[in-house]
Amino acid sequence: QVQLVESGGGLVQPGGSLKLSCVASGIVFRIYEMGWYRQVQGKQRDLVATLTSGGSTNYVDSVKGRFTISRDNAKNTVYLQMSSLTPEDTAVYYCNANRKRVSTRYNYWGQGTQVTVSS
Prior knowledge:
- This protein is mainly β and 119 residues long.
- It has no helices and 11 strands.
- Strand 4 and strand 5 form a beta hairpin.
- The radius of gyration is 14 Å and the shape is globular.
């Protein structure tokens, strides 16, 4: 019943911008850490950015200053604003929801959305 649905991917030119959205259902959104990951065909899925329920952010070095993660708890939505895009940003981007307790962990993934930066 838990669903994470990404949208906003597409084809953009180098130097362009794109904003991804992920709408969550089936969870108490405000208490989850949210994140964005990306995966290139044939490579592992890598962290892009995370945003805790308390508002703390973390970014992979390669996107610092270019990408911004944010959330709107009233809309159960997490966003990834991407600017100054390069071909190396081309990947499938996945939304993640994570919650940890002493003896229980919950981890959910969206279906992914393709971002292609042309060259």
